[in-house]
Specification:
Elements: H1 3-12, H2 18-21, E1 27-29, H3 35-45, E2 49-53, E3 60-65, H4 66-75, E4 89-90, E5 94-96, H5 101-111, E6 115-119, E7 125-130, H6 131-134, H7 143-151, H8 155-174, H9 179-202, E8 212-216, H10 218-221, E9 233-237, H11 245-265, E10 283-285, H12 286-298, H13 302-308, E11 315-319, H14 322-334, H15 339-349, E12 374-375, H16 377-395, H17 402-412, H18 417-438, E13 449-450, H19 457-481
Parallel strand pairs: 1-2, 5-6, 9-10
Antiparallel strand pairs: 2-3, 3-4, 6-7, 8-9, 8-11, 12-13
Helix pairs in contact: 1-9, 5-9, 7-9, 8-9, 9-11, 12-14, 15-16, 15-19, 16-17, 16-18, 16-19, 17-18, 18-19
């Protein structure tokens, strides 16, 4: 990669909500402002875009860029005395100011737009961000990949696009791209693939005219997809009346099952646990989803807790995201008060110890098919994912990715920066070993299993140090929950 691409992908990994990226007050003009004075404002503030907002309510009405205005005046016979509202883009692309930056990168890449309006929960204007504020997703030579995804007209074309993304991802990994940047890059492009697949399938069905959203869980929700990943998804819909819930669900299920099948054909294996939107269990109304989470919080039975953990990593992918954001807002407010739930989560996480003996030697499970190996997902990355999830939910943190959670909760709990950095470095190292193994085998059961004897001495030492960091995380959990 070029130096610019490296810098861009490094910036892409920064864990920031959109609100923190909108550092400059945007240029805001009234709908009746003339093009002449609007151009003057552009000149005075050195701006390249302006938000057209209602002067009384502060609600954004439209967006106009300097390029748009020059086009209108120079080539479309627009008058400098025209009100700017005549030439604005109405209902401009917008996102909630507290949404993660990843969502904005995907939105911009998908729609080919250069600016996004940020709004407060009540709809008022918060700020404006541009591609220059985000960078990242178009790094790594991905422009042609994005164009190929957006241009695909059938599932066969999507299969080829998905394969190209995986091959390019392998090249970036082998050339030394940082693990966090690679996972964000892969997740961003995989999001575009998933969105395009849903678009193609959506055209084949007469879906109910209600707000709905395709949701992602697990590694997809955490932006930690690697090269061996299965589907973890669900569907949320908002019925006009509660009595219509079952009928609307039945109408959505054939569509969701078709999407699950298309994703499978494009390399995203069907979930072995059937956590997919095509399963009626995970095609629910907004009220049903909230009740499902409430049940997990209030009645933390061991088996239910074990099944539920990946659902707490949810994020919206396609459709109307506001109901999913409201569900997340409810959850981060509701969850901290459920001590029994967190105790059960910690107890479950502590049920599996890092694979190190007292003398510092590696220990192994009793898997007969892969003896003398360590599952770096279940006995490696999981320790960091579990601890980060527990602390994020307990502290009311919106983030879903493990690294963002470790950074946010570590800062909120005033942990030493060097300790936070050591945890993240250990997690990334385990992820790098996992990815390397996934690129070496086509056996799904072996995708996360590493034989330490296949590693050189330095890598064995680094892996042991990562497991020691996992032990420290577990020690903190034991102390916090008295286990």
């Amino acid at each position: 990669m070029t130096e610019t691409e490296n810098q861009a992908t490094a910036n892409a990994a920064e864990p920031a909500p959109l609100r923190t990226l909108a550092q400059h007050q945007p240029l805001v003009v009234a709908p009746d402002a003339r093009l002449r004075e609007t151009l003057y404002y552009f000149s005075q503030q050195d701006a390249d875009a302006a938000v057209i907002a209602d002067p009384d309510s502060g609600l954004p009405l439209g967006l106009v860029t300097l390029r748009d205005m020059l086009q209108v005046v120079s080539f479309e016979d627009g008058s400098l005395d025209d009100p700017v509202a005549v030439h604005m883009t109405g209902a401009p692309p917008s996102l909630a100011a507290d949404a993660p930056s990843h969502r904005a990168r995907v939105e911009m890449a998908k729609k080919g737009i250069s600016h996004l309006v940020l709004t407060e929960p009540d709809g008022r204007l918060c700020g404006l961000i541009s591609q220059a504020d985000l960078l990242g997703l178009r790094a790594g030579g991905s422009q042609a990949l994005i164009e190929g995804i957006n241009a695909a007209r059938d599932i066969d074309a999507m299969m080829m696009a998905a394969d190209r993304v995986r091959r390019r991802g392998a090249e970036l990994f082998n050339s030394g791209m940082a693990v966090e940047s690679l996972c964000q890059w892969m997740s961003g492009l995989n999001d575009l693939i998933g969105m395009r697949i849903i678009e193609l399938i959506e055209d084949e069905f007469d879906l109910p005219p209600v707000p709905w959203c395709w949701m992602l869980f697990g590694s997809e929700g955490r932006l930690e997809q690697t090269f061996s990943t299965d589907q973890d998804n669900g569907l949320l819909f908002v019925p006009p009346e509660a009595e219509q819930t079952s009928a609307i669900r039945e109408a959505f299920l054939p569509f969701a099952q078709a999407v699950n099948q298309a994703l499978h054909h494009c390399g995203f294996e069907r979930c072995r646990g059937d956590i997919m939107a095509g399963n009626p269990e995970w095609c629910l109304s907004a009220a049903e989803w909230q009740q499902r989470f409430a049940n997990w919080l209030r009645v933390p039975e061991p088996e239910a807790v074990l099944r539920s953990t990946i659902f707490f990593d949810f994020r919206p992918l396609y459709g109307t995201s506001e109901p999913v954001d409201r569900l997340r807002a409810w959850l981060i407010k509701e969850a901290p008060g459920h001590g029994r739930f967190f105790h059960a989560l910690a107890e479950q996480s502590l049920g599996v110890s890092p694979p190190l003996g007292w003398a510092g030697q590696f220990t192994f499970d009793r898997n007969r098919d892969f003896p003398h190996t360590i599952d770096l997902k279940l006995q490696g990355a999981r320790y960091f994912m579990d601890a980060a999830r527990i602390w994020a939910l307990k502290d009311g943190i919106w983030a879903t990715s493990t690294v963002e959670r470790l950074r946010a909760t570590g800062g909120q709990r005033q942990h030493r920066p060097e300790d936070i950095a050591a945890e993240i470095e250990a997690f990334h190292l385990i992820q790098r070993f996992r990815i390397n193994q996934q690129l070496q085998t086509k056996d799904q059961d072996a995708a996360n299993r590493v034989d330490p004897s296949d590693l050189n001495e330095l890598h064995r030492l680094m892996l042991k140090e990562s497991f020691k960091q996992a032990r420290k995380l577990q020690t903190r959990l034991r102390q916090e929950f008295g286990l």
